[in-house]
Amino acid sequence: METSQRSSILISIIVVLNIIVWMVLMSALGLGAMHLNDCPLQPYIPVYLLVIGATSIASLLLVYFINTLGPGMLSLLTSSCVILLQLFNLVWFLTGCVWVYSIFPLNYDATTGEKYCQRTIYLFAFWFNSLGSICMDNAQVRELVSKCMQARDRAYCPYSRFPVGAAILTAGGAIITGCNVENASYGLTVCAERTAIQRAVAEGHRKFTAIAVTCDIRDSFVGPCGACRQVLIEFGTDLVVYLTKPDGSYKETSLKELLPLPFSPAHLGK
Ligand SMILES: [Zn+2]
């Protein structure tokens, strides 16, 4: 596909996504204001939607404003406001999840008394939070995948010319990357997955939740070599593995699936 064609498709997708985000945020604001007193069982839900709608719109407007500014004090100040607003929004979103899910499922029938919440606002809040959580989850996977692709571009592979990138996600949410590093004495070559995990351990991480790996093969999803599977299992069997193609598409699998019946540290204690 031509680069210009690809970028115009990307711009159209961004415009459509922007319109959807604006519509959802305006609806949150409107529904929250309209039904402020219609959820006696959990009165925070309308307030939650009202506040998240308003603060998200304010943060979006500030981002547009930053784009019109050159570097300077004002730009720095506005960026700090955006970061603070987004941090607040994250905490507010998580609090909203507690309010919304704590009363699921409930009755939409006003005649049943205290179990009542207005149907539209409750369902809106429920789907807003559920889809929001999925998007946030997905955003982390996308970041992991994009970091492993960046790492592949730094591979040192003058002999095989087969660049590989890996990015490992720690339990604390940090992403550590690695690439293959070859050597004129071929046997000393280290794979990308092992570079990543060794860097992560050296930086003090011991628990991992996922790893993304990629190479230059376009037509199939390629997994880590056997040696790397063994090194990964040293730190637990519950690792999610994203096998990534150069175009950014990925297949989700797990270390358990890639290395069945493994030899692990647990066996040494028996
Ligand atoms: Zn390997």
From TrEMBL:
<dbReference type="InterPro" id="IPR016192">
    <property type="entry name" value="APOBEC/CMP_deaminase_Zn-bd"/>
</dbReference>
<dbReference type="InterPro" id="IPR002125">
    <property type="entry name" value="CMP_dCMP_dom"/>
</dbReference>
<comment type="similarity">
    <text>Belongs to the cytidine and deoxycytidylate deaminase family.</text>
</comment>
<feature type="active site" description="Proton donor">
    <location>
        <position position="193"/>
    </location>
</feature>
<dbReference type="GO" id="GO:0055086">
    <property type="term" value="P:nucleobase-containing small molecule metabolic process"/>
</dbReference>
<feature type="transmembrane region" description="Helical">
    <location>
        <begin position="73"/>
        <end position="101"/>
    </location>
</feature>
<feature type="binding site">
    <location>
        <begin position="180"/>
        <end position="186"/>
    </location>
    <ligand>
        <name>substrate</name>
    </ligand>
</feature>
<feature type="binding site">
    <location>
        <position position="225"/>
    </location>
    <ligand>
        <name>Zn(2+)</name>
    </ligand>
</feature>
<keyword id="KW-0378">Hydrolase</keyword>
<dbReference type="GO" id="GO:0008270">
    <property type="term" value="F:zinc ion binding"/>
</dbReference>
<dbReference type="InterPro" id="IPR016193">
    <property type="entry name" value="Cytidine_deaminase-like"/>
</dbReference>
<dbReference type="GO" id="GO:0042802">
    <property type="term" value="F:identical protein binding"/>
</dbReference>
<keyword id="KW-1133">Transmembrane helix</keyword>
<comment type="function">
    <text>This enzyme scavenges exogenous and endogenous cytidine and 2'-deoxycytidine for UMP synthesis.</text>
</comment>
<keyword id="KW-0479">Metal-binding</keyword>
<keyword id="KW-0472">Membrane</keyword>
<feature type="transmembrane region" description="Helical">
    <location>
        <begin position="45"/>
        <end position="66"/>
    </location>
</feature>
<dbReference type="GO" id="GO:0005829">
    <property type="term" value="C:cytosol"/>
</dbReference>
<feature type="domain" description="CMP/dCMP-type deaminase">
    <location>
        <begin position="139"/>
        <end position="266"/>
    </location>
</feature>
<feature type="transmembrane region" description="Helical">
    <location>
        <begin position="9"/>
        <end position="33"/>
    </location>
</feature>
<feature type="binding site">
    <location>
        <position position="191"/>
    </location>
    <ligand>
        <name>Zn(2+)</name>
    </ligand>
</feature>
<protein>
    <recommendedName>
        <fullName>cytidine deaminase</fullName>
        <ecNumber>3.5.4.5</ecNumber>
    </recommendedName>
</protein>
<dbReference type="GO" id="GO:0004126">
    <property type="term" value="F:cytidine deaminase activity"/>
</dbReference>
<dbReference type="Pfam" id="PF00383">
    <property type="entry name" value="dCMP_cyt_deam_1"/>
</dbReference>
<keyword id="KW-0812">Transmembrane</keyword>
<dbReference type="GO" id="GO:0072527">
    <property type="term" value="P:pyrimidine-containing compound metabolic process"/>
</dbReference>
<dbReference type="InterPro" id="IPR050202">
    <property type="entry name" value="Cyt/Deoxycyt_deaminase"/>
</dbReference>
<keyword id="KW-0862">Zinc</keyword>
<dbReference type="InterPro" id="IPR006262">
    <property type="entry name" value="Cyt_deam_tetra"/>
</dbReference>
<feature type="binding site">
    <location>
        <position position="228"/>
    </location>
    <ligand>
        <name>Zn(2+)</name>
    </ligand>
</feature>
